Amino acid sequence: MRYSILLALLLSVSSLFGADKASNATAIEQTNAELAAVKAAATQAREEATLATIQATKAKEDSKRAIDELAQVKAQREEELASMAAQEQVLKENRSIHISVVGQGVAPMNTSSPAQAYALAKRAAIADAYRAIAEKVKGVRIDGQDTVKNMMMQKSTIRTYVQAMVKNANVVETTFKEGLCEVEMEIVISHSDFAQ
Amino acid sequence: MRSRDGNRNFSLRLCSIIIFSSLTLTASEHLISYKYIVKDATLYNETLLISNAMTKCNGTPQNELILLNKNSKNLKQLIFENSEEFIDYMHKLGLHVEHKETTSNLQNSSTTTLTLKTTCFKVDFNDNFARIAPLK
User: From A138, which residue of chain B is nearest by alpha-carbon distance?
Assistant: First the structure.
């Protein structure tokens, strides 16, 4: 009887130890699984970080390339402007500029002879040539005005105005064809003409 | 008693003084203005005004023009006989250019005015030619 009780006691104690061992094993498994999950998350985060750094370097390279391209475009534009400035005629000291223009004029309808028509058309063409010279040398004032009513263009007006004093202009060639007279005029402008 | 050479010099001087004084006495001053208007590429109006100067003009003659003269003392007549030459000369003297152009609803109209502002000219009349020069 005693032995049976002792045996029962031993069995129960052993069963108790066995249960503890099982619970310990599950806890270890759980912690292992958590550890593995954390490790996986860490590796993922690391991968993401490396991806982000790669992307950042790529973006940096792109921006650098864009800056370089912009600088190149700027340099090209500056070169173009410099070449344009070199081509543009600028009146320098002890230099002169030769300007050539063509003026057009029409004879009036009520002329008494072809000679009169020619003379009057030539006069008009000379005035046009003078205007062209004045435009080139001194410039044009332009004024524009548009009127819009109920989203519709009502009136559009452009006014131009030229005023100048033209001296020593010469007629180079005159042609008269079908009532239209064309006069080629030239003027040589030197720096001393403008020196005060 | 004067030598022959001395008399000759004297007579030459006298003649030159007489010629010079006759030339200066025939010189007169005139006021001339010129204007022409071109509208839509057609000559619209041309005006050449000539009058005797009522008061003495200041300045020295420059860029003279020599016109053929048939013993005339009338500047208007002389200029109308040589109008083309005189107008070319005025172009060379310099004209004021004023141009106005308006484009309204795609219809264009323009007016160009060329003007020689009233200028005093010294005119020397001779038998076969006349000298015209502006005083500046």
Answer: B97
Confirm or reject contact between B115 and chain A (CB < 8 A): no
- B62-82 tens-digit pLDDT: 889 999 887 777 888 888 888
- Which amino acid does the sequence have at A4? S
Q: Do A159 and B101 touch (CB under 8 A)?
A: yes
User: How confident is the model over A107-159, as pLDDT tens digits?
Assistant: 988 889 989 899 899 999 999 999 999 999 999 999 999 999 999 999 999 99
A130 interfaces chain B, CB cutoff of 8 Å? yes
Contact list, B97 vs chain A (CB under 8 Å): 127, 130-131, 133-134, 162-166
* Residue B93 forms contact with A (CB below 8 Å): yes
- pLDDT 10s digits, B19-42: 555 444 457 899 999 999 999 999
Distance (Å, whole) CA B110 – CA A28 = 103
Residue B94, number of CB atoms within 10 A of its CB: 16
Are the beta carbons of A127 and B36 separated by less than 8 Å? yes
Question: What length does chain B have?
Answer: 136
Please give the pLDDT value at position B16: 63
The ipTM value here is 0.74
Domain extent listing, chain B: 28-134
* Number of CB atoms found within 10 A of residue B93's CB: 17
**What 3-state class would DSSP assign to B124?**
strand
Interatomic CA distance for residues A156 and A149, integer angstroms: 12
The single-letter code of the amino acid at A68 is: D
Give the mean model confidence (pLDDT) for residues A97-116. 91
| Mean of the per-residue pLDDT values of chain A | 87
Nearest C-alpha of chain A: how many angstroms from B11?
44
Q: Is B136 on the interface with A (CB under 8 A)?
A: no
